Amino acid sequence: MSMRVTFLGTGTSQGVPVIACPCPVCHSADPRDKRLRCSVLIETPEATIVIDSGPDFRYQMLRADVRKLDAILFTHGHKDHTAGLDDVRAYNYFMQQPLDVYATEETQEVLHREFQYIFKNADYPGVPQINLHTMRNEAFEINGLRIQPIRVLHYKMEVFGFRIGDFTYITDANFIAPEEMDKARGSHTLVLNALRHEAHISHFTLEEAIAVARDIAPSTTYFTHISHQLGLHEEISAHLPENMRLSFDGLQLVF
């Protein structure tokens, strides 16, 4: 199976630079230190999928020139992962069909609350048209493409990562149970959140993420959901293990 992965956003809920922050990372001239909210685009012959549509969704779709979209998978219901759902209206118009959206029951409650007009005024012109699918911790298919959810914890909140072929994507995690780690084993490429160096209540630190990556043992690991507190891209990259890298907005991987 051929696959192209594009990192649409690799930052935290505030993005990088952070508003009003005077730190060196937020004022870096390196484009790799400019991070939109976390999202990834996956393109295969079977399907074009986005994982999470945060506040930067519109710009991310424009920047990556995504003209066809089959589905959005939601990892969880936090605003930095769901806020851009309204902008699927453009795909409704040009593709002349509703968009498939996959979310857990808990995340669906958030969508119903935050986007009431989608569900209460479905016949109103211009309202986003979606087909909402309930996602559980079991494999499913989109246009024949197999998606394996991986359940992780974001403090006490359930979050889903996903394995698609030999590619595994996990964000907003600070705990992965052994049986869920097993789902990621054998992946060629792992994407994992690494917020900063200091301990955090709901995210892996860089050191914790490195330890998890070593346990899963993919060929290559890319870290995402990166805070300005982690440091400059170039400086942190120089000290990572040989098969581990920081991701950055616009990075593309082809398998």
TrEMBL record:
Listed name of the protein: MBL fold metallo-hydrolase
Stretches assigned to the Metallo-beta-lactamase domain: 36-214
SUPFAM superfamilies: Metallo-hydrolase/oxidoreductase
UniProt-listed InterPro entries: Metallo-B-lactamas (IPR001279), RibonucZ/Hydroxyglut_hydro (IPR036866)
